[in-house]
Amino acid sequence: MPEITAVDGSPLAPESIRMLDYVKTRSAEMTAAAIRDRIRVAAQELESAVAAVSAEQARLRPIPGKWTIAEVVDHIAQTQVRGAEELRHLLAGRRPPLPPVYEALQSGAGQWAPWELLVEDLRDANRSMIALLEGASHEPAANAPTVKTVVVTLRKLENGRTEPQIFFAELGWKEYALLQRLHLLDHRTQVRNLHAAVSAAAV
Predict the structure, then answer these.
(1) Which among 35, 14, 15 is positioned nearest to 175, based on CA atoms?
(2) Which of 109, 102, 45, 103 is nearest to 73 (CA)?
(3) Which of 70, 141, 158, 161 could anchor a disulfide with 58, C-beta 3.0 to 4.6 Å?
(4) Any idea what the Cα angle at residue 90 is, between residues 131 and 172, rounded to 5°?
């Protein structure tokens, strides 16, 4: 197997190596039901964080150049829909035929759609993925198909700051599903931080 490098050609940072090792090791240890339950809990935590946000707060941009909460919610919903689509292929023993789910996927609705609709879309997308995993019980075969996946980690620089490192990985369905859980948790934390920032600015 060729060595994985970041998209800019640099070697994987220790944070990226740990992320990949975690996904591969934990997915091998966990049953399909355990992964599904972890995704359900992560989705609930994210939805609880989103429920605390008002429509007005969702449109504020407390960090210039960064997403609003509405844009984050749109991104998660769109990613979950595509993620479920790719999982459906993998569970059926097929390699997904579409381009990979890129890290900044959005529909544009985060800039104009009613907040209530964005929240409903997020919930529906989460339910769709969880429902799909309800029927997933088999362990991947040795020759099971994989999906080309965009993985993003934060690596620490020498000056103490962090920056994203992006790389591609070939993942089986359990590894891919576990990565979706981590994606939900990352954005749960992002929503909480953005909500705290807009709340503090309003004081």
Answers:
(1) 35
(2) 109
(3) 70
(4) 110
Q: pTM surpassing 0.70?
A: yes
Q: State the DSSP code for 110.
A: G
Q: What count of other Cβ atoms lies within 10 Å of the Cβ of residue 84?
A: 20
And the tokens for 195?
A: 């909500």
Alpha-carbon 203 to chain mean position: 32
The continuous run of DSSP H or E covering 149 comes out as: strand 147-156
Tell me the pLDDT tens digit for each residue of 113-146: 999 999 999 999 999 999 999 888 767 667 889 9
Token code pair at residue 40: 């359900």
Helix (H) or strand (E) holding 41, with range, is helix 32-51
Which residue shows structure tokens 């979950």?
80
**Confidence (pLDDT) at 159:** 84
User: Does the CA dihedral 100-80-15-189 come out positive or negative?
Assistant: positive
Going along the chain from its start, the domains and CATH numbers come out as 14-198 (1.20.120.450)
pLDDT of residue 1: 46
Cα–Cα distance measured from residue 11 to residue 174, given in angstroms and rounded to the nearest whole number: 25
Run of H or E residues at 50:
helix 32-51
Bridge partners (DSSP) of residue 167 are: 6, 151
